[in-house]
Specification:
Shape: globular
Mean pLDDT: 87
Helix content: 25-40%
Distance between the termini: 58 Å
Strand order of the largest sheet: 6-5-4-9-12-14-15
Largest sheet: 7 strands, parallel
Strand content: 15-25%
Amino acid sequence: MLAVQRHKLIIEELRRLGAVRVSDLTELLAVSEMTVRRDLDSLAADGLLEKVHGGATLRGHLSADEPGFEAKSHRQLREKEAIAQAAARLAEPGQSIGLTAGTTTWRLAHHLAQVPELTVVTNSLQVASVFHRAARPDCTVVLTGGVRTPSDALVGPLAVSAIRSLHLDLLFLGVHGVTADAGLTTPNLLEAETDRALVAASARRAVVADHTKWGVRGLSKIAGLEDVHVFVSDSGLGDDARAAIGEHAERVVIAPLRRRNANGGG
């Protein structure tokens, strides 16, 4: 098969699926992984797709970038703080809770640090640091091992192995994107695998996601909306999105935003 034919098939798969994996393309095209990666490099150079870890997404259709923690921490600050305050009310003293990595769960950790007698399991270095600084003797923090991602998550076989032996009462799940069909997604394949292990280990699951996450579809699926018990977002989430989520989740919580003061502060 000529390169131009392979490129045409890759773009067709992207338009059909929204995202493709290198491993799937090697089977579809009957070529080596190296050949597929060269094809993806060529198409990316032409501006036809975005390369992500383990595959590619269609440029302009899917969000495939994975900004670092510092970059993401400055986005939607008011929304994240409002969501964190609302979500913290879901936790009860004495529970075992999980927190995935992310800047919204990081804000949430500041509020959960005030809840007594929690056992916290997290794969986030930033989240663990919040509880460490709080120095509560009645709080136990379990930090999974693993390989560090740009978002300061610990992922991979070590993290998954540790999580699979645990049982959590409640998981707070941050996500890169949410859509009605794809559910909860992330651009990082290893982070998705680790998050899936946390989902499987939890009795109840609460998603914390600001309105900008709706309509974004990352490369790898974490869970479906049917796996969500409570979805916590902000008032920017549209009615259609609320209805779509409400068809699956038990409850959609909309966190009210604090009004800005006269000087424009939050």
